[in-house]
Amino acid sequence: MTGLKRVVGQLGMVCLLVWSLAVHAVEWPQQIAADEGTIVVYQPQPEKLAGNLLTGRAAMSLELKNQDEPVFGAFWFSAKLDVNASTGKAIVRDMKVTQVTWPDSTDANESRFTQVVEAALPQAGFVIDTAALSASLKGAELERKSLSNLKNDAPAILFRDHLAVLLMYDGEPRFSDVDNSDYQRALNTPFAVARKKNSQAYYLSSGQFWYSASDPLGPWTLTGNPPADLQKMMPAQEADEQAANGQPPEIVTVTQPSELVVTDGKPEWKSLPGGDLLYVVNTETPWLRDVAGGSMYVLLSGRWFKAAKQDGPWSFVRADELPDSFAQIPPDSDIGGVRTSVAGTPEADDAVTDAYIPETAAIKRSEATLEVTYDGAPEFKSIPGTQVAYAVNTGAQVLKIDNHYYAVDNGVWFESDAAKGPWAVADSIPDDKIQQIPPSSPVYNTTYVHVYESTPEVVYVGYTPGYMWSFPYYGVPVYGTGWYYPPYWGNYYYPRPPTWGFHVGYNPWTGWNFGVSWSNGFFSFGASWNAGWHGPYRPWGCCNGWYGGGYHRPPVVINTGNINIGNSVNIGNRAVINNRIGKNPQLVNRNKSVYHRPENRARNAKPAVARNQLKMARPAPQRANNVFADRNGNVARRVDDNWQVRDKGQWSANHPAASERLSSPEVKQRASDFKQSHPDYQRPDIDRQQINNYRNNRSPSNFDRSGLNRDFQSRQRGMQRSMPRGGGFHGGGGGRFQR
User: Fold this and answer.
1) Where in the sequence does UniProt note compositional bias of the Gly residues kind (predicted)?
2) For residue 187, what are the CA distances in angstroms to 199, 493, 538, 657?
3) Among candidates 713, 653, 586, which has minimal Cα distance to 135?
């Protein structure tokens, strides 16, 4: 027993070490060696992000070998980003210095100092947390894409007050023979549905429960005596103790886009602090009621729908047009996680900014291969309003443009002179024509995959979350385009990406997760069964998920009894995080990058090595990350609530924060006098002229306080997001559902 304890203890120490390395936030400032000393670079302040090209500015100090005091300056730059969501880190490389200012130096030294910086920085690489990078982009210029053609019609929203599962068919049920058996299986559902040939006996299984019906649309009834030969055909399934001991769910069958909202008994409404909002405790679906307006709201695939009553009709509500009470939901409440879907909240701003950061990779030409299989001769369909056609009778995403062929596979563009190949990694693509593809097309997500640059050995590529069907929309992320894409039927069945039916919810750590209400393993089991049986089923080829929806096939055993309705609809993932990963957000991210999934890693080159041998910067010890550069080239540092500006080798006297300036006796008296002489003025609490005079009299005269305040807040937000969190997801626990 002592030996076992020793082994367990050693394993625990190893796990703790791995955890500490993985979650350790990147430290700023960072330093690099130069010919005349050390250059200390403070956290960059981005001004623009276009693809993988980042431009911005940063404060710095040059610590000369023969001088005690550092020389502070600011520089503007452009640089390339290599982003890996699986680690939560990005490398800033190929930095080009475009401008330098030195508030500390004399004219005679400026040229020499600038040469030192311009020579050293392009050879260096800097590491930054993607969360910190995202937060710092809040005030930057981003490539925004019009999403006016997203479809926001409500799906059929169904309610049950007892355990139930949504059995979804993609249209009317269709069956195909299972090789070497007397059975057929349903092709157009992720569930395990089979029938005996030449009979009306249908069976459905989750691995623990069996159901039977005389019609594939039900009604389905529990059976304890399924055919023995059918049971033997089922793949091995881990036992779900809670499912086995619990009540079997009702099977709710649909053939059109639908969502199922399930409660444990009648809905139990609970008031949030302030009493303006109520929410249902005993459900996995965010379901709220605005007390003042009387309408109820549900959150599905990142979209809000409202109705006067449960039976509907339900209508779409933009996230920036919700009642004001939604923005007042406490972050640490049971439903704090829904703030990500409320425009204007910090959580929503974070999620939207994340959507503009590309996931990148350097792809080795020699290792990246593609084979495309068609159901017969390649068949292409023109996309209205474009010069693009797409292949309909394949699970791959193949485009035809100007009699040339392009295909996207796991975030990489390939090209060929023929529809069947051979395929090679593309150096470039006709992006202007590809960008014409509208959301109504099932290949719309390819417009979010890009080719950045190439060498004879490597092609640099990237994608933004739109490739994974996640879009920033009126201040929040939404999932799916809302369009229904009919599948292809021939000798094979190719489903297309859906928006509805999978109970999709957003989590700031894992992105979009999906479940099938309290599924008892139905989905994961059905998917594995379909994948294991031979036959004409061919899943959509996009992103290694059933239907190719851009989400990963999860360890979906959602029947854990732990409901967190605000933070994740996929309670199965939440349970895994709490029990196995604990406070390690980096391990949660392990499958977020398409490029770094196990099956894709062999084709990846190391970007820094493939590009050049970067001299990686390292943390600069005993220096606070509180120095900034404003847009005018001034260098300032934040001390408590005050700004100190660097001028002629010294930090200036404190400049109080805006709140302190406005509360000063001088400003208050001026505002009072102004109010008496201008009784019709609508904002008598602020004397604009007094504030302008105050700003104009400070030194340096062009100090951009408002811009630096924003950058400071963004840096603080980034530090918060980069730190590990305890207790599962941000937002606290949800209700407890026991069966």
Assistant:
1) 725-739
2) 18, 7, 9, 64
3) 713
Q: Please classify residue 619 by burial: count the beta carbons closer than 10 Å to its beta carbon, then call 0-12 exposed, 13-18 middle and 19+ buried.
A: middle
Which run of H or of E encompasses 493? strand 493-494
Report domain extents, the chain: 262-354, 360-470, 629-702
What pLDDT is recorded for position 585?
Answer: 37
Say whether 663 sits in a helix, a strand or coil.
coil
Closest CA to 607 of 450, 460, 462: 460
Q: Is 45 within 8 Å of 632 (Cβ atoms)?
A: no
Cis peptide leading into residue 439 (ω within 30°):
no
- Distance in angstroms between the alpha carbons of the first and the last residue of the chain: 36
User: Which residue's entry shows tokens 């039977």?
Assistant: 212
pTM: 0.83
CB 58 within 8 A of CB 44: yes
| pLDDT for the residue numbered 680 | 52
What is the per-residue pLDDT across 718-728, written as a single tens digit (0 to 9) for each? 988 877 543 32
Amino acid 150 reads: L
Q: Are 284 and 561 in contact (CB under 8 A)?
A: no
- Angle between the 688-696 and 665-677 helix axes, to the nearest 10 degrees? 140
Place of tokens 């400070």: 698
Collect the ranges in the chain with pLDDT lower than 50.
1-23, 239-244, 516-521, 523-590, 657-663, 681-698, 725-739
Grouping H, G, I as helix, E, B as strand and the rest as coil, residue 707 is helix
Question: What DSSP string runs through 443-457?
Answer: TGGGGGEEEEEE-SS
Q: Which of 620, 617, 639 is nearest to 712 (CA)?
A: 639
Task: Find, among 160, 158, 206, the residue nearest to 559 by Cα.
Answer: 206
Residue 518 corresponds to which tokens in the numbers above?
A: 């309290």
CA angle 91, 548, 217 (to 5 degrees): 150
Say which DSSP state 264 is in.
S
- Token digits for 686? 């602020």
CA–CA distance, 485 with 380 (Å, rounded to integer):
15
What is the Cα–Cα distance from 70 to 215, expressed in whole angstroms?
A: 80
In 417-469, beta strands by DSSP E: 424-425, 449-454, 458-463
Please give the structure tokens belonging to residue 150: 């997203």
Token readout for 37 is: 């000393």
328 in the Ramachandran plot: left (φ > 0), alpha (ψ -120 to 50) or beta? alpha
Helix (H) / strand (E) containing 615:
strand 615-616
Q: What is the DSSP string of 85-145?
A: TTTTEEEEEEEEEEEEE-TTS-HHHHHHHHHHHHHHGGGEEEEEEHHHHHHHTTTSEE---
Cα–Cα distance for residue pair 214/149, rounded to 1 Å: 41
Q: Which of 494, 471, 491 is nearest to 481 (CA)?
A: 471
Quick one: which H or E segment has residue 253? Answer: strand 250-254
Distances in Å between the Cα of 715 and the Cα atoms of 138, 646, 710, 720 are 10, 20, 9, 9
Residue 513's DSSP bridge partners are 505
Q: For 144-173, b where at least 16 C-beta lie within 10 A, e where not — what string?
A: eeeeeebebebbebebbeebbbbbbbbeeb
Q: Residue 312: CA atoms inside 13 Å, Cβ hemisphere, count?
A: 12
**pLDDT of 246:** 63
Beta strands in 274-417 (DSSP E): 277-280, 287-290, 296-300, 303-307, 315-317, 359-364, 380-382, 389-391, 397-401, 404-409, 412-416
DSSP designation for 350: H
